[in-house]
Amino acid sequence: MRLESLRTILTLAAIRALDIIQFDITSAYLHGTLKEEVYMEQPEGYVAPGKKNWVGHLKKGLYRLVQARRTWNEELNARMESEGITAAAKDPAIYVNNSWASDDFAQQDARSMTASR
Questions:
Q1: Contact, 71 vs 35, CB < 8 A?
Q2: pLDDT digit string, tens, across residues 9-31
Q3: Where are the domains of the chain?
Q4: E strand or H helix at 97, and its extent?
Q5: Are 27 and 65 in contact (CB under 8 A)?
Q6: Environment class of 49 (CB within 10 Å of its CB; exposed 0-12, middle 13-18, buried 19+)
Q7: 73: closest CA among 90, 57, 95?
Q8: Which residue in 11, 56, 61 sits closest to 36, CA to CA?
């Protein structure tokens, strides 16, 4: 998340008396369903007896798998968009509820300016 985005969110939350929910999912990449065919060798120490030359076909992402991040992000975006929530254009780590009117911010600024006079 960009610092400017964080400042904007905190400011809006303070002005509108909103609750902020933040979460960091450390194992999220493990839940994305892979679209590509990905195979891996058996890790050392975990070789199945009698199946030394076998490989595994991955259906879900693994930690540090290049495709895992993209796959999980695609699934997250699809789910958020189905709920009417979209990623911000300037910072894709921020999601915005589309039910807010586009002039909400301008109205808030106008009210702040008249209240300060």
A1: yes
A2: 889 889 988 888 776 666 666 67
A3: 3-115
A4: strand 95-97
A5: no
A6: exposed
A7: 95
A8: 61
Q: How many CA atoms lie within 13 A of 2 on its CB side?
A: 9
Q: Are 79 and 71 in contact (CB under 8 A)?
A: no
Q: Find the mean pLDDT for residues 29-50.
A: 82
The pLDDT tens digits for 60-109 are 777 667 777 777 788 888 888 898 888 888 888 788 776 655 444 444 44
> DSSP assignment, residue 98?
T
Q: Tokens in use for 68?
A: 């895992």
**Closest alpha carbon to 71 in 23, 116, 28:** 28
For the chain, first and last CA: distance in Å? 35
Which residues are CB-neighbours of 2 under 8 A, at least 6 positions away?
Answer: 90, 91, 93
What is d(CA 72, CA 32) in angstroms, rounded to the nearest whole number? 4
The set of residues, in sequence order, having a beta carbon less than 8 Å from that of 85 and lying 6+ positions away, is 95, 96, 97, 98
